[in-house]
Amino acid sequence: MQDFFTWLGRTLGEIIRFVVDLLVHFFNNLGASARGFFDGLAASLGISPSLVSLAVLLLGLWLLYLALRALLRRRLVATLIWALLGVTVLSWLIY
Q1: What is the pTM of this model?
Q2: What's the confidence (pLDDT) of residue 34?
């Protein structure tokens, strides 16, 4: 009877170890993939791959999105303001 519980504990431990190793490899590969994506994006835009540059890029794209929303609502002045702000922010990065 003791051999059965030894076998059961060992099997359960190996299963848990396999799941933990699988999750570790998954998240390591996910981080490497995200890092590669951001490095490629930054290289194609000609900006540094820092978090600040990526945050400014997201801010500029968000401002252009607001300009598009204002355009769809037929608010011409707001469209021009948001678009000007978005292009200005993006021009700080890409020159």
Answers
A1: 0.67
A2: 87
